[in-house]
Design brief:
Shape: globular
CATH class: Mainly Alpha
Strand content: under 5%
Number of helices: 16
Structural class: mainly alpha
Number of domains: 1
């Protein structure tokens, strides 16, 4: 049975935030054996704990990249428009009272803005996946607009904080892929048609169950994007399994999760996501609010 459009959009939006929330409890643990020893197999939400990078976060919350995506979602819900300069001002206003980890790209962007930067010059040279990974709210908001609009908006969002060739290429790919999935294309054909060739080739060379470890667990796109594609190739048929395997791999599993959950949610729809994960997500009402206002 073919999925309807609304299920794909809801699955895409929920999938991105849910997969990240699942990974948050073991975020930036770079040794999978440590994850197993401390937490067992991650099949549900839990708080990261006092020794983590997110000591005040609750189970079912978002990480610092997901919080920025939530800020984008709230902006779109409130303003009913996408405008990069207006969002940048709103994004800047979230940080004085922010009570979690602040990443290097954010600190650099805030410094640029304090020095008088504009949206065209605010972004840092960061090549980390977290920049383009935040676009799920934009993809939901622009789901019925032409693909070119979604791609342009994804790039505009990304370069506000992460202005590098890698992030621009990745944002364009993710927007094209997500938009086409929302409109009924299959996961395999979309990845083959839109993913950067270098990233596909890297993912395909990583043989065996430890493919992500071979590709690298860190934040930069040259490691993180092939790792996402490896997960899609090996577990893309199963949202739950792919999300768990991503969490268990460790490293910057939260940024990978935002991307992985977006793609698989768009491909398989809302019902492919476990009900317990949907109900336990702290931001579920905010997501439902954007979807209701489409």
């Amino acid at each position: 049975m073919s999925l309807d459009f609304s299920s794909r959009v809801a699955g895409m939006l929920h999938g991105s935030f849910i997969a990240e929330a699942l990974s948050l409890g073991v975020h930036w643990i770079y040794d999978p054996e440590v994850i197993v020893r401390r937490h067992g197999r991650v099949t549900g939400y839990h708080a990261p704990g006092a020794e983590s990078y997110h000591p005040r976060k609750q189970a079912g919350a978002q990480g610092h990249a997901g919080d920025q995506a939530l800020r984008l979602l709230a902006f779109l819900h409130r303003e009913r428009r996408w405008e990069a300069a207006a969002f940048l001002a709103d994004w800047q206003a979230m940080w004085p009272d922010y009570d979690d980890y602040v990443d290097k790209a954010t600190k650099g962007t805030l410094a640029h803005l304090q020095a008088g930067a504009t949206p065209a010059t605010s972004g840092t040279a960061s090549d980390e996946l977290a920049g383009p990974a935040r676009i799920a709210p934009l993809m939901a908001f622009l789901a019925e607009r032409p693909e070119s609009d979604a791609v342009a908006a994804a790039i505009e969002q990304t370069v506000l904080t992460h202005r590098s060739p890698e992030t621009i290429e990745c944002a364009a790919f993710l927007a094209r892929a997500t938009h086409r999935l929302l409109h009924g294309a299959t996961l395999s054909e979309v990845i083959a048609q839109t993913a950067p060739k270098w990233a596909l080739e890297a993912a395909e060379t990583a043989k065996g169950p430890d493919g992500i470890g071979k590709l690298g667990l860190a934040c930069p796109i040259p490691q993180a994007l092939p790792a996402v594609l490896w997960l899609v190739q090996h577990h893309g048929h199963d949202f739950e399994l792919a999300s768990i395997e991503n969490a268990m791999a460790g490293g910057d599993n939260c940024a990978r999760a935002l991307v992985l959950g977006m793609l698989l949610g768009a491909a398989h729809g809302l019902d492919a996501i476990p009900l317990a994960w949907r109900e336990g997500l702290l931001a579920r009402k905010e997501l439902q609010g954007l979807l209701a206002g489409q």
